[in-house]
# Entry
Amino acid sequence: MAVCILVVDDEPQSREMHAAVLGSWGYKSVVARDGFDALLKVAEHSPDLVVSDLRMRGMSGFELLSVLRRRYPEIPVLCISSEYDPLHIPPHVVCDTLLKKGSYELAELRAKVAELLRGQHRASHSKRPEAVVWLPKGRDDYYTVTCTNCLRTFPVRRTTEKEHSEEHTSCTHCQTVLTYFIEGSRA
Ligand SMILES: [Zn+2]
# Structure
């Protein structure tokens, strides 16, 4: 059976380009347009690797990465991002490898994909004990949090306006303690 790679990107052009490139290297590719779609496709296709954008409408890449790490820790994740440095992936971006959007060579992508599929370069990030939740900075008094363990949602009263400050809450359904961050910009 062909190795299956899930490409998650809300930009159709970028999504189809990556799917086509991966296909030309002999991988079977499946595409998803956002985080929610990605979770459905993961359940349906059990991909060997996920390649994801970070900034997406609906469920962002940050949230998707957290949920994936919690629910499917065995699946390596390659993240393509314009705002983080591949050499200094911040702890709240839960991926195995990061490529800088728009400034990497296809040969680099190919090498990273092959490494991750061989199980290389997973150690530090896959050992992270707690996946985190990202929330949009909105105007309401409550945030809606999606539990990374049971995937159900529940409201949490807003206590801070500070971006990227670490907050904790317990899931009202399964009591899992969740760490969350407030994300500044989101469509
Ligand atoms: Zn829960």
In short: Confidence is low (pLDDT under 50) at residues 125-129. DSSP finds five helices and ten strands in the chain.
